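Researcher: Hi, I'm a grad student and pretty new to this. My advisor asked me to get structures for two proteins we've been looking at. I'm not sure of the right format, so I'll just paste the first sequence and hope you can take it from there.
Model: That works fine. Here's the first sequence with its structure tokens right after it:
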Amino acid sequence: MILFLFLLWRIFDFLIIFFSQKVIPYLGFFPYGDQLPGFNLPTWISSLANFDGLHYVLIAKNGYSQFEQAFFPFYPLIIKFLTPLFSNNQLLTGLIISNIAFLIGITIFARSYKDSNWFIIFLLAFPTSFFFGAVYTEGLFFLLLISTLYFLKKERYLFVIIFAFLASLTRFVGIFLIIPIILHWIFRSFPRRWESRLSWIPSFEGMTPKLFLTLLAPILGLLVYCSYLLKTTGDPFLFLTSQPIFGANRSSHLIFLPQVYWRYFKIFFTAAHDFRYYISLTEFLMFNFVFIVLILDLLKIINLKIKKLKSYKLQVISYDRLGLNLFSFANLILPTLTGTFSSIPRYSLFSLSFFIYLSQIKNHFIKYLIVGVFIILHILLLGFFSQGYFIS
């Protein structure tokens, strides 16, 4: 079933790209776009490296150029290492890595989550799910994220250390894997500490060196990259300070959510109704939809935990869902601190609690309706993205 859904998703996306070339005028206004033909792939394949994808390809090929340190290193390093296996074609290598990693990721998720089919349907239908199969970090990071959570639940901490470390070398949001890891550590001691009425206090009882290193793993990955940046550029936070260079109205200093809302309300009431206006509207609506669903999911988790606390059956409390929900919130809110909802449709892909909540909706009509809306937006966004329009 997983392989069938994956192949259906791939065929569907390639058909969208193929027909979009016939009906949507090509724009292609992004850096290094003129280098795409040099990879000798059909345009309906190479277009999956538009925008940021080309940066990853060129980093793998030539190393970092000025300001490209905004892109974390693990994905281009893998591309560079595996390129000789695929005709020395970095773009093709990136596509293969992304798709295989994503397929393995959803397979692991299906093994760890009982009712996974609806989750995967919502995930694949989501308007920007095509980034999982593009030359972007989404496919690889999904595998690292799911693997970290899977082995954390199994208490196989060596694998957690490896995958959490690599996750924060792939995307900055990987550092927030410390949230589910900390909750795992705290709740792990609950059953033993309930009798002393100190269950709410974190305990160091049973804290082995391996478990302690598990806590540090997401931070260590980021520290390694910061150390590299300090040595090569003199700025350990260049991945943040270089963000405004890439446009999208990003700021290098913190801007809080109320200010972002104010900015978008000004856009809606003053800006011309061009393509960028409707992309801003899409970003705004998608952020709020995901945000509201995450709040509903959190309330559902809290309500369930309260019922279990009252029954004193602390050993059956599912802390992994709470950790995933809080990680999903951090993943969604973090990009808004740069002062914009830009790319939120893409970043939302890792707010996994959003998809879990949708998969648990009991009304099938609502499920089909949401999937239908997702597919329509998926067709539109992928069509324009493949033709060189910035959509996320």
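Researcher: Oh nice, that was easy. Here's the second one.
Model: And its structure:
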Amino acid sequence: MAEKVKPETVASGFERQDLSPRSVYVFLVLLAVGVILVTVLLWGLYDAMDAYQRKHQPTLSPLVRQAQANPREVPADATNAFPQPRLEKNERLEIGNFLLQEEQTLNSYGWVDQKADVVRIPIDRAMQLVAQRGLPTTPKAGSVPPSEVNVVNQAAQPANTSNLPSAKGKK
């Protein structure tokens, strides 16, 4: 008979041979010291590079206009001098006005080009006119539109009047 193997029971708790809490705390303290050390090192490096850059700046030409002290401060009249499109100051207000203007344009009568007699009509009215009149059609493929040459050729052909009584026989 085969012997039944019993699974070994594991003692409750954690295995005490892997890591001690003391080694975890030492690792975390060393990690924090390393982060602080790298931060201080990078701050000093950037400060040194900034000082080097300021020291080696080329001298400006006397023709160059000096910029204002804070380039982020924009005078009120400078926004109008900037070319289109400009940044929006209040996006919701400006898009609302734009959409309202577009809606009025789409739903009103008005001139597009008064000199050329081109007008715009509301979309609903244009749809009604298309429903009444239909869309403009093009001639079917293969059909020749009437031309002046064809009309003249048909008119120039002699008429067949042989079946009609002649005017000479009548007296």
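Researcher: Is there anything I should tell my advisor about the second?
Model: You could mention this: The longest helix spans residues 21-55.
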